[in-house]
């Protein structure tokens, strides 16, 4: 029987659109390889959210890998418990593999997209932003007052920089930073979440995800004793220092919001007494932003090289040091606001704050928002039948 050749006059039969399937890069392929090994072992299933999420999959596409990478808190517990870690031939190191992909996701989903390149040279970016912002405010102080030492101003910041000028500058930069972060997180969410998950979140998922994010639930190592940092010993200090940093930041933000309300709603401009709400909130927040970042920097310097992605440590340290500068200059300004040094301290403090605002969308700050989105997806996903046809948890 003679085989019938295809008619060249007819269109070729449709082929699977393989070019539409996202191709994994080397780092994503490594996560895929390790997740397949972990899915067969499952010894770490109770450690954190990554492993229950992993067990709902038999294969790992780009979206799955991006989701799991941001769900990982890099606590290191699974690495120190793994029987397949080096020197085993499988060389499993989930925290490190996840960290490398996680850094790529920040750049991939950044908005505007070309600005994603700033993640790769974040240390230089932060240093440049700080230098430019400091120069700007020192120059403005000279232009407004003719000198950086105008004498005692009784803590009146607006005698150095007009209120409307500060409100316009910082409001505009913060609004742009918030927009860039919002678009980036939305891009990430739409990429890793199916349409039905985006449209109908499961009941209780918001509360569960918020609780996990605000308490840093998955920095307890899965057993309540904490993370591994430099060796096999557990420590809760990484979780505690994160809490000091996060809630210190929130208290400082609350101080700004309250002071704004005093100014615009009550007609009560700064300076405020030491026992007023804005000053108390700002002082507590500043202390938190000294203790937290200082502790995180110490842990980062002592961290074992196999923990996380060494290439991202300049970004981590640049953000930590910038937070330390903001808090230290803010507390110094508060303590010396009635002295002749107030104007120069104010210019330095505002320069560090402006540098922080400029770098927020393209630095370490983004990890908290991406991770919160991943935790929200996990909270929704666990309430639904999984891809293997099994019931929810």
UniProtKB/TrEMBL annotation:
Keywords on record: Membrane, Transmembrane, Transmembrane helix
TM regions (residue ranges): 124-146, 166-185, 244-265, 277-299, 319-336, 342-362
Record organism: Pseudomonas putida (Arthrobacter siderocapsulatus)
Protein name: Tricarballylate utilization protein B
């Amino acid at each position: 029987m003679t085989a019938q050749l295809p008619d060249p006059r007819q269109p070729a039969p449709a082929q699977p659109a393989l070019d539409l399937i996202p191709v994994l890069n080397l780092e994503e392929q490594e996560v895929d390889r390790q997740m397949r090994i972990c899915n067969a072992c499952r010894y770490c299933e109770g450690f954190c959210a990554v492993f229950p999420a992993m067990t709902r999959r038999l294969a790992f596409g780009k979206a799955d890998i991006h989701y799991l990478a941001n769900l990982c808190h890099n606590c290191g517990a699974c690495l120190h418990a793994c029987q397949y870690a080096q020197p085993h031939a499988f060389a499993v190191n989930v925290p490190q593999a996840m960290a490398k992909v996680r850094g790529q996701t920040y750049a991939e989903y950044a908005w505007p997209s070309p600005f994603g390149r700033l993640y790769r040279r974040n240390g230089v970016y932060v240093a440049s932003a700080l230098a430019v912002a400091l120069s700007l405010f020192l120059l403005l102080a000279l232009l407004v007052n003719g000198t950086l030492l105008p004498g005692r101003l009784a803590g009146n910041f607006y005698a150095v920089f007009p209120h409307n000028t500060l409100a316009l500058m910082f409001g505009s930069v913060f609004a742009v930073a918030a927009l860039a972060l919002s678009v980036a997180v939305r891009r990430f969410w739409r990429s890793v979440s199916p349409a039905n998950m985006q449209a109908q979140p499961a009941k209780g998922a918001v509360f569960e995800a918020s609780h996990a994010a605000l308490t840093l639930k998955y920095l307890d190592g899965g057993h309540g004793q904490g993370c591994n940092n430099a060796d096999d010993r557990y420590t809760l200090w990484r979780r505690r220092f994160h809490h000091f940093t996060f809630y210190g930041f929130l208290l400082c933000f609350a101080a700004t919001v309250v002071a704004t309300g005093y100014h615009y709603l009550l007609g009560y401009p700064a300076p405020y007494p030491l026992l007023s709400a804005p000053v108390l909130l700002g002082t507590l927040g500043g202390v938190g932003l000294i203790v937290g970042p200082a502790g995180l920097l110490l842990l980062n310097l002592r961290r074992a090289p196999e923990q996380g992605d060494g290439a991202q440590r300049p970004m981590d340290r640049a953000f930590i040091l910038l937070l330390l500068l903001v808090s230290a200059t803010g507390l110094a300004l508060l303590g010396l606001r009635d002295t002749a040094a107030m104007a120069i301290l104010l210019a330095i403090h505002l320069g560090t704050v402006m540098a922080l605002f400029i770098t927020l969308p393209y630095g370490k700050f983004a990890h908290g928002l991406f991770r919160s989105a991943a935790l929200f997806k996990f909270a929704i996903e666990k309430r639904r039948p999984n891809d293997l046809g099994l019931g929810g948890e």
